[in-house]
């Protein structure tokens, strides 16, 4: 493709144009400042690519999401979360022997070092689960010094994937004053998580097969999503040379915000507020449209999807099926559907391409599993972990990677003489 030309300060400067494998076009502005003295300005980076990547592809207009070339619909229907984690990190779906080895390693490493339990004891019972998760993941660097390459590093990837669900379940048990339930080696990833969350010493517990399958699918749907806020955070922290655990800990913190992964919790809180208010949808739709009102329709809108979020479509479909099969009549599901219908009849939302995103319906399914609302974003982090790891490894291995250090346009005071304000004695 012909280079892009920029005329600035009577200078005509050309920039190479990259075309991706899905025909996305980008200008390579590596030499922009050196050749013009100017920089670009793009708050929120809505028009700025930070890297070339081979992991995930999103077409926001067409509602397409693919992990390593496989459609999210195919993976959600036919694959398992452990297979998808392997795919994202290694680039290919595992053969049976490779799956067995990977799965066995995840089982083998799912225990926490007994000394790590002291961290949980130090927290108050109502500690925010995402801050517990972020802190304890960061502490893994102390227990397993982060070797950056070779076998040790691969083990650290496996340790993190294996232990995050144990950390999450332990933080829940701590929050309800129940004894920790240790991992069971005979259970798969999703089943073992539900077992660690809900088993109690006094009675046998076998995870519900439908809920296990549903959780596994939800984890797949959350596994990666290009250069979103938390993934960019993981890459940015890693670009400084910080180790994997520290970088992922930062990603967990970024994900906790209500505009990002925290939205799944905020959606349920919003639906409960609407229900308590007598289901007055128009009031809340109008609040969401009111520029003077900070209220937003949580679970609606997306930086990239301007038609529909394919993950939301899958989740909405399975929510009906799962609640139907379990005989659960959750009034919030009907409320969510009514709110979606009313919003999408309103030109404010349609004109801005605001549709339900991955967070709009996911909480309905977590509720059906008995997972408390304040743990919903932890569930998002469990799913996103393999994507964060894959993106971090890709950043480390990319020869083009430099420490992330954006520029700015300074709009402050010009040089001014120092004047002593008020009378001060040295
Ligand atoms: C995730 O990036 C990813 O890929 C993230 C994610 C992933 O998998 O990693 O997909 C996960 O974070 C999903 C998004 C979860 N967040 C929410 O549901 C919170 C509610 N949504 C919004 O806050 C918002 O839509 C964002 C944060 C998702 C996107 O913000 P943008 O791209 O910066 O869009 P914007 O705020 O500039 O909005 C554009 C317009 C504005 O109106 P105008 O200035 O044009 O008049 O749309 C309006 C906004 O006011 N708008 C909303 C709205 N979202 C956008 N108005 C009411 N309710 C909303 N939810």
What's the quick description here?
The chain is 51% helix and 6% strand. The strands form three sheets. It has a three-stranded antiparallel sheet. The protein has a two-stranded antiparallel sheet with strand order 1-2. A two-stranded antiparallel sheet has the order 3-4. The N and C termini lie far apart (65 Å).
Alpha carbon gyration radius = 24 Å
Strand order of the largest sheet: 5-6-7
Classify the beta-strand content into a percent band: 5-15%
Average per-residue pLDDT, rounded, comes to 96
By secondary-structure content and strand pairing, the structural class works out as mainly alpha
Distance between the termini: 65 Å
Q: Which hetero ligands occur in this complex?
A: s-citryldethia Coenzyme A
Shape by Cα distribution: globular
Q: How would you describe what is shown here?
A:
The protein is 51% helix and 6% strand. The chain is mostly helical. S-citryldethia Coenzyme A (SDX) is lined by residues 44, 225, 228, 259-261, 263, 288, 296-304, 352, 354, 357-359. S-citryldethia Coenzyme A binds at residues 44, 225, 228, 259-261, 263, 288, 296-304, 352, 354, 357-359.
């Amino acid at each position: 493709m012909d280079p892009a030309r920029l005329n600035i300060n009577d200078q005509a400067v050309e920039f190479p144009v990259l075309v991706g494998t899905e025909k996305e076009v980008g200008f390579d502005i590596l030499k922009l400042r050196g050749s013009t003295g100017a920089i670009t300005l793009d708050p929120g980076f809505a028009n700025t690519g930070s890297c070339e990547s081979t992991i995930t592809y999103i077409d926001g207009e067409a509602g397409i999401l693919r992990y390593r070339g496989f459609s999210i619909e195919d993976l959600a229907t036919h694959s398992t979360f452990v297979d998808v984690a392997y795919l994202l990190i290694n680039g290919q779906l595992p053969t049976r022997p490779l799956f067995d080895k990977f799965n066995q390693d995840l089982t083998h490493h799912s225990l926490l070092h007994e000394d790590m339990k002291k961290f949980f004891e130090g927290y108050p019972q109502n500690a925010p689960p995402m801050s517990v998760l972020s802190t304890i993941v960061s502490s893994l660097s102390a227990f397993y010094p982060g070797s950056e390459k070779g076998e040790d590093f691969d083990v650290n990837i496996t340790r993190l994937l294996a232990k995050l669900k144990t950390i999450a379940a332990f933080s829940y048990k701590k929050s309800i004053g129940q004894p920790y339930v240790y991992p069971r080696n005979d259970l798969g990833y999703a089943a073992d998580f539900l077992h660690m969350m809900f088993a109690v010493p006094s009675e046998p517990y076998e995870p519900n097969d439908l809920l296990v399958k549903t959780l596994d699918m939800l984890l797949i749907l959350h596994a990666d999503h290009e250069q979103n806020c938390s993934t960019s955070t993981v890459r940015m922290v890693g670009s400084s040379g910080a180790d994997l655990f520290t970088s992922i800990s930062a990603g967990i913190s970024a994900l906790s915000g209500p505009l990002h992964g925290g939205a799944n919790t905020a959606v349920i809180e919003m639906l409960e507020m609407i229900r308590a208010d007598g289901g007055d949808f128009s009031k809340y739709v109008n609040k969401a449209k009111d520029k003077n009102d900070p209220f937003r329709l949580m679970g609606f809108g997306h930086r990239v999807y301007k038609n529909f979020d394919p993950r939301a479509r899958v989740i909405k479909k399975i929510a009906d099926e799962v609640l139907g099969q379990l005989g659960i009549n959750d009034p919030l599901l009907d409320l969510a559907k009514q709110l979606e219908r009313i919003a999408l009849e309103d030109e404010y939302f349609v004109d801005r391409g605001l549709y339900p995103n991955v967070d709009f319906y996911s909480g309905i399914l977590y509720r059906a599993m008995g997972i408390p609302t304040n743990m919903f974003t932890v569930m998002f982090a469990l799913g996103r972990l393999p994507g964060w790891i894959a993106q971090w490894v890709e950043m480390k291995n990319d020869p083009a990677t430099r420490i992330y250090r954006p520029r700015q346009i300074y709009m402050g005071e010009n040089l001014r003489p120092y004047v002593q304000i008020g009378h001060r004695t040295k």
